[in-house]
Amino acid sequence: MTSVDVEPGVTESAATPVIEARDLSRHFRVGRGFFSKQQLHAVDNVSFSIGRQEIVALAGESGSGKSTIARLLAGVYKPTGGEIFYQGRPMSSFKSRKDQLSYRGDVPMVFQDPFSSLNPAFRVSHGVLRSLKLHRPELTRQQRQDEAAQVIEAVGLTPAGDIMDRYPYELSGGQRQRIGFAQALAHKPKLILADEPVSMLDVSIRIGLLNLMAELRSSAGVSFLYITHDIASARYVADRLMIMYAGHIVETGPAESVLANPKHPYTDLLLGAVPDPRAPLSLGIEGDTGEPPKVVDPTPGCRFRWRCPLAIDRCHVETPVLRRLGENHEAACHVAEADAGVAG
Amino acid sequence: MPDQLLEVRDLTVSYDTGEHPVVAVDHVDLDVQAGEFVGIVGESGCGKSTLLFAIAQLLSSPAAITGGSVKFLGQNLVTMSEKKLAALRWRDFSVVMQSAMNALNPVKSIGAQFQDTIMAHDEVVDDNRPAEVLRLVGIDPIHLKSYPHQLSGGMRQRAMIAMALLFTPDLIIMDEPTSALDVVAQRSLMVQIKELQRKLGFAVIFVTHDMSLVSHFSDKLVVMYAGQVVEFGDTRAVFDHPEHPYSEGLLDAFPSIRGPKVPLTGIPGAPPNLASPPPGCRFQPRCPKAFEDCPKIEPELYQVGAVQSRCLLHAPSIESAKEVS
């Protein structure tokens, strides 16, 4: 068996996705007392894959399970069901420290809050140099410095020499988040898990980071899982879009197709929430003040049915599954299925 | 009730940092009529939060008001004693802070915090008032017994707004109340604020960095850059025809969900250091439309149609000069 950091054969690599999740679940034990049997279903039977140099956006509200998926992929949580395959190999087989290290180097994470994810006591080069030392021990001290300067320049911070010696408080939010990307980039990753990388930043600088992601995809050949609650930014960078609600993926497909022709009523709701100054003035008081439910010991049925304007009787008794409703476009909704004439 | 609720004139706030005092709010004028919704937008560090704090008299050292006046219902708040201010706060105007996570006391129930506010004033308040205001913002009154950690982010922010409504004030000042929320919660909170405003008739000053957020909700819009007002006018007028390159930049900074997909650049660069602002127009180093006069002449607010813009392109003399060339 090949080691993870060794490139598999070219023919194989073209076909195998970088990462694939099959029936991935993560449940948490909740409730009072040590013997509580209550299970919170944060992620339930989720399957997806991310190809080479692909940017996939995972969108949904707070509490829908997006970050749990990122943590499962990063290896922070162990799945309670299903399996993650990295370049065709199941993640549960990465037992040795070498395997685990190389996986973590290949699939790093960029965090949401650039103000608390950098250690204020160290210069910003610290994180980059540390991860280089850990993941690429063959480099000499000088090579590490050069490499760090190079990635810091690659994320658009110039002059790198000057930036490297600064402390986090001397940088703006946007610059700090770029350092976050530089840390992830240092060990030549295959897939970067970006968990709401722009939501803490000013609107005027968000676009710069989204452009950076697109640029790194082509220059460094990485794939991205871009997690966001803002579907407009997802449309801007992503090839594919996955919409998540209460632990389920409810719709997935090419970004343009999902947004132009949303099948699931939840996607509609997300789209309606995006403030769009170019849209004509309409105070749509839909009165939707709902929030995603905490899914504790669920019974069958669609999890969106309490907020859904289209809910029918069937939604209360049968959990809808993802069905193909268009070119690469899938949705999990009984009503959309009936509309599309797909036999249930 | 007089129509003019708040009249801010020439308000200047400085941070005393020794040699170079930082002027964070630079001669700002602002009028708010009763029942009006005024949006203030700008990037981090443009002075918008400092302006709010100055209006509410919440500045603490080293920041201090060094000039100008804030007249609220005819009284100048700047020269008012702390004691008189305390009586006005919550009763006549209230402030909703950015992060309800930190603004609510984590070891006291929501109801106890409401009681604290009520007890600080001499007003006689109906015992049912706390339950009533919670119902107004769409939270079950059962949560008066809840602690902040038991509520979701959106509910906490709504509880803060409920608290601000206890005495039905004339003015509510909001400092980015939605910035910690996701888009769906953000939208529903905005709709709720607007509905409450219609029902109860209070005025709102709403600060945000996301211009598109207020596009459908505010009556007037103030765009701030580097401590100055750079554009002011009716919200729709500013959105339809932004007259300052900075407002244009803010508007085009973020992708739309409709229409063709176009590559965007945002506004390159960062706001200037206010200890040593650039000469002439403060936006000129980042401005795509800058010309040779911009670093030389400091622009004023010029009237352009329905809006006011602090851009030399609209200076009367330059206008004629351009037509000649």
From TrEMBL, chain A:
Keywords: ATP-binding, Nucleotide-binding, Transport. InterPro entries: AAA+_ATPase, ABC_transporter-like_ATP-bd, ABC_transporter-like_CS, Oligopep_ABC_C, P-loop_NTPase. One of its GO terms (molecular function) is ATP hydrolysis activity. One of its GO terms (biological process) is peptide transport. Residues 19-271 form the ABC transporter domain. It holds the Pfam family oligo_HPY. NCBIfam families: oligo_HPY. This is Peptide/nickel transport system ATP-binding protein. It comes from Kribbella kalugense. The lineage of its organism: Bacteria, Bacillati, Actinomycetota, Actinomycetes, Propionibacteriales.
TrEMBL record, chain B:
Keywords: ATP-binding, Nucleotide-binding, Transport. SMART domains: AAA (SM00382). One of its GO terms (biological process) is peptide transport. InterPro entries: AAA+_ATPase, ABC_transporter-like_ATP-bd, ABC_transporter-like_CS, Oligopep_ABC_C, P-loop_NTPase. One of its GO terms (molecular function) is ATP binding. Residues 6-251 form the ABC transporter domain. Gene3D superfamilies: P-loop containing nucleotide triphosphate hydrolases. Pfam families: ABC_tran, oligo_HPY. It comes from the Bacteria. PROSITE patterns: ABC_TRANSPORTER_1 (PS00211), ABC_TRANSPORTER_2 (PS50893). Belongs to the ABC transporter superfamily. PANTHER family: MALTOSE ABC TRANSPORTER, ATP-BINDING PROTEIN, OLIGOPEPTIDE/DIPEPTIDE ABC TRANSPORTER, ATPASE SUBUNIT. This is Peptide/nickel transport system ATP-binding protein. It comes from Kribbella kalugense. The lineage of its organism: Bacteria, Bacillati, Actinomycetota, Actinomycetes, Propionibacteriales.
